[in-house]
């Protein structure tokens, strides 16, 4: 069958889709990856076929304060603190909060990063290429629109916690209690107009919840840490992919003392252009610990932090999948790839979660599971971080709990092992009369 992957146009989101794309390709299926031109080279470097659609997104430039008024709203995160999609406390999920989240995120994020031109190009390509399955990023609604327009089955591939699934379940419960004339769903309004523009309206063609949560969801988060939802879920083992990289020679040498990794990931460099946690505070916290620190920090981050402590080795990039097996702990920003790679290697974590999507609730669920300690960036001090690092290193329960979650992940089907399940789901969800591609 033909499978079209549709990631959000950021390298980290492409990386989250590569293992499943390769599993389908290795099983003999034809695979292509379509998104804005920004990440075409990242896709090609992964050995996959890139299909650029729409204009370049330039997501980092969209966060530059010299841009339009919309950018000022995005960078001033007061609205995000009030309408945080990662707010999962039941008492806070009021009808007003839920409506506010969709009213804010639909124009500020979804419509801004998935513009009409990109959707139109993807729809045209899907109608021409006729994929049997479109696997789409939960941050990009172009995928399900193209699937509906081309008659393909479609599934979300998550990169972290299923915030959309949870918020939609709660929001639909609210809307279903209202008279029809009082239901106001900003996401439905936008996607409904998009569908109509492509001649899609009416039962089975217009808007429904499948356009938001997929016909099913492929979820790499361990079941014990995933959000309990009603959406059809296909668990898959998280297989780390760090992009094209060389393993440095020093990594072959065993560390002389316990090694910890300190990283703020690449998401904020790529998407926002700055970090929320203070690099200086992070380095001060580990300076007098009897550990070897590998800090993945670039020149700009280091320039604002002062001299490096003698126990810190700074590298712009090193593949975490190769570094973490030698580490006793990791300090990081809560990004999905970093978090899941640490779990895959059974490494205890200290999380200073950046305010981006599900970083904060993910950190909290890790804390509850006993694999991590966490502190909000605005409350971070060198002393507090130092105490957390010492605790995860010296309290054996963190390593034991991390090993337990790692064992759970190893017992979850690999991307290759779920391919037959995807083939069956495609056959079950393909519209009547739709024949698969050769």
From TrEMBL:
It comes from the Bacteria. Pfam families: EryCIII-like_C, EryCIII-like_N. Keywords: Antibiotic biosynthesis, Glycosyltransferase, Transferase. CDD domains: GT1_Gtf-like. SUPFAM superfamilies: UDP-Glycosyltransferase/glycogen phosphorylase. Residues 22-265 form the Erythromycin biosynthesis protein CIII-like N-terminal domain. Residues 281-425 form the Erythromycin biosynthesis protein CIII-like C-terminal domain. Belongs to the glycosyltransferase 28 family. PANTHER family: STEROL 3-BETA-GLUCOSYLTRANSFERASE, STEROL 3-BETA-GLUCOSYLTRANSFERASE UGT80A2. This is Activator-dependent family glycosyltransferase. It comes from Streptomyces litmocidini.
């Amino acid at each position: 069958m033909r499978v079209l992957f549709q990631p959000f146009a950021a390298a980290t989101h492409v990386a989250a889709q590569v293992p499943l794309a390769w599993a389908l390709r290795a099983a003999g299926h034809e695979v292509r990856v379509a998104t804005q031109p920004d990440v075409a080279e990242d896709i090609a470097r992964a050995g996959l076929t890139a299909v650029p659609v729409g204009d370049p997104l330039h997501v980092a430039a969209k966060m530059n304060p010299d841009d339009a008024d919309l950018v000022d709203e995005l960078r001033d995160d007061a609205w995000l603190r009030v309408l945080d999609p990662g707010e999962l406390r039941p008492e806070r999920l009021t009808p007003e909060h839920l409506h506010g989240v969709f009213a804010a995120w639909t124009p500020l994020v979804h419509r801004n990063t998935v513009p009409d031109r990109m959707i139109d190009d993807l729809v045209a390509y899907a109608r021409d290429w006729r994929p049997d399955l479109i696997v789409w990023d939960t941050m990009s609604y172009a995928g399900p629109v193209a699937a509906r327009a081309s008659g393909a089955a479609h599934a979300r591939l998550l990169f972290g916690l299923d915030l959309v699934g949870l918020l939609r379940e709660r929001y639909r419960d609210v809307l279903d209690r209202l008279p029809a004339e009082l239901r106001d769903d900003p996401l439905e309004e936008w996607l409904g107009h998009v569908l109509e523009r492509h001649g899609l309206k009416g039962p089975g063609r217009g808007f429904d919840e499948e356009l938001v949560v997929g016909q099913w969801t492929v979820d790499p988060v361990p079941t014990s840490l995933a959000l309990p939802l009603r959406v059809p879920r296909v668990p898959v083992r998280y297989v780390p992919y760090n992009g094209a990289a060389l393993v440095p020679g020093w990594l072959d040498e065993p560390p002389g003392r316990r090694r910890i990794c300190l990283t703020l990931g690449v998401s904020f460099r790529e998407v926002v252009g700055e970090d929320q946690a203070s690099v200086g505070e992070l380095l001060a916290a580990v300076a007098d610990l009897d550990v070897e620190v590998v800090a993945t920090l670039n020149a700009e981050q280091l320039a604002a932090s002062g001299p490096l402590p003698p126990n810190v080795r700074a590298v712009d990039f090193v593949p975490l999948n190769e570094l973490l097996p030698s580490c006793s702990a990791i300090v990081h920003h809560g990004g999905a790839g970093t978090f899941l790679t640490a779990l895959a290697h059974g490494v205890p974590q200290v999380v200073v979660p950046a305010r981006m999507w599900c970083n904060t609730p993910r950190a909290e669920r890790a804390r509850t599971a006993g694999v991590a300690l966490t502190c909000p960036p605005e409350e971070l001090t060198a002393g507090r971080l130092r105490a957390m690092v010492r605790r995860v290193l010296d309290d054996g329960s963190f390593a034991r709990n991390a090993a337990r979650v790692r064992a759970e992940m190893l017992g979850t089907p690999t991307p290759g092992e779920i391919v037959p399940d995807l083939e069956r789901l495609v056959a079950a969800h393909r519209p009547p009369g739709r024949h698969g591609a050769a």
